[in-house]
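PROTEIN DESIGN WORKSHEET
SECTION A - STRUCTURE
LENGTH: 400
TOKENS:
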């Protein structure tokens, strides 16, 4: 991604403190960040804070003579690649919906032709008010993107909808709009991620160490490249992905059902999930009490989802599996590719430093009938981009 010009508008709301993290992170990534603050925003966070974090003058006043002569709302608007308002108060949403431009922030917003994103944050009553909902709908119809509020504890003491999503989630949405190269536009991709969880009783379960990070990285990369992405994830502790239709499941059986319900509508299926191969034959309805001596559990096989999808594949569908091995990586992965009738298998080994579960990096080898391509140690995000480029750049995969 190129370094871009981002305007961050801040309006009056306690969530403005989270915008500090957002601005700092965007700046660290090399983007130029101009912060525009409403008068009320300055009551929550000082312009000096944003000036220090962004390394740029903060614009608050339309008519200040402190700015360079060539800096005004029109020049800022022209240079912007993306304009995000976070937090967006009910007041600024109402103004934007009605084309009101009465300060530096709203005039610049009105003059901007770039992608625009509003991140509403307010009390649940204000958010649910028909006027606010009507104004948000007007904004949507005008092509302005809205990042939905989270639910939870609000600063006013209420619990409900209206919390501003964390900076990481806002940044994820920003990244999506900053990507202008969208080679996967028109493609529909189903991706699975994370572990599955197989219940033993109401207290205990069997699972594995998968974090879901590789599957999420693939979903993010596919979304940024313009694909319509459906993500089916097992239990993970990751931020939801903006712009990705997500189905959360727990067990292998639930994942199987979800994949079967969705795979036909997709031209590509990527099974990055670490699906449990076995589940307890019986799930106790009550907690199993300990007794003297050992306990044996009878485990039964779960469906092999990847194999099932491959055997029912539609014409033209590309099927990509993963192989996680501790020994003889390439031979085992090649065998899986053939047995599961995939177009590609992405082999990774947990024995290699920097690869495998939990971490943010991976070392993968892309295996198909014709070729074996080894990638170096990469961040999972970069590995995901390379996998998609290799497997989906126009040509359909050749089955193993
Ligand atoms: N997979 C699946 N359903 C299962 C098990 C695995 O769809 N019940 C998929 C995984 O999502 C992955 C591929 O099959 O894409 C290989 O998974 P892996 O765990 O490496 O291998 P297994 O098939 O489970 O075989 P083994 O555990 O014997 O290595």
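SECTION B - SEQUENCE
RESIDUE ASSIGNMENT:
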């Amino acid at each position: 991604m190129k370094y871009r010009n981002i305007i961050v508008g801040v309006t009056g709301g306690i969530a403005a403190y989270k915008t500090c993290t957002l601005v700092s992170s965007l700046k660290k990534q090399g983007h130029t960040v101009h912060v525009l603050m409403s008068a009320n925003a300055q009551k929550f966070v000082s312009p000096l804070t944003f000036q220090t974090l962004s390394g740029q003058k903060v614009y608050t006043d339309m008519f200040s003579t402190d700015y360079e002569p060539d800096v005004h709302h029109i020049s800022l608007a022209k240079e912007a690649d993306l304009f995000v308002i976070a937090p967006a108060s009910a007041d600024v949403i109402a103004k934007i919906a009605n084309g009101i431009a009465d300060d530096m922030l709203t005039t610049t917003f009105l003059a901007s032709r770039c992608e625009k994103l509003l991140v509403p944050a307010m009390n649940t009553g204000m958010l649910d008010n028909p006027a606010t909902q009507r104004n948000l709908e007007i904004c949507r119809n005008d092509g302005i993107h809205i990042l939905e509020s989270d639910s939870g504890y609000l600063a006013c003491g209420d619990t409900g909808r209206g919390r501003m999503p964390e900076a990481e989630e806002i940044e994820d949405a920003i990244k999506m709009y900053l990507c202008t190269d969208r080679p996967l536009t028109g493609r529909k991709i189903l991706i699975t991620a994370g572990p599955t969880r197989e219940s033993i009783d109401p207290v205990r379960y069997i699972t594995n160490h998968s974090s879901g990070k590789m599957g999420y990285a693939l979903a993010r990369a596919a979304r940024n490249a313009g694909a319509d992405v459906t993500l089916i994830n097992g239990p993970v502790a990751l931020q939801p992905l903006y712009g990705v239709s997500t189905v959360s499941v727990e067990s292998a059986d639930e994942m199987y059902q979800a994949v079967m319900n969705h795979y036909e509508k997709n031209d590509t299926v990527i099974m990055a999930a670490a699906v449990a191969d076995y589940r307890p034959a019986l799930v106790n309805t009550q907690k199993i009490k300990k007794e003297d001596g050992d306990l044996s559990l009878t485990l039964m096989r779960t469906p092999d989802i990847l194999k099932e999808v491959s055997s029912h594949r539609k014409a033209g569908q590309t099927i990509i599996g993963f192989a996680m091995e501790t020994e003889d990586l390439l031979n085992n992965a090649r065998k899986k590719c053939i047995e599961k009738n995939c177009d590609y298998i992405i082999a990774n080994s947990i024995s290699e430093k920097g690869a495998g579960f939990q971490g943010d990096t991976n070392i993968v080898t892309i295996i198909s009938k014709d070729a074996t391509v080894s990638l170096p140690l990469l961040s999972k995000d970069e590995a995901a981009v390379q996998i998609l480029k290799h497997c989906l750049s126009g040509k359909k995969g050749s089955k193993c």
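SECTION C - NOTES
Residues 252, 271, 273-275, 277, 302, 304-306, 321-324, 336 surround cytidine-5'-triphosphate (CB under 6 Å).
The domain at 188-391 is CATH 3.40.50.10300 (Rossmann fold).
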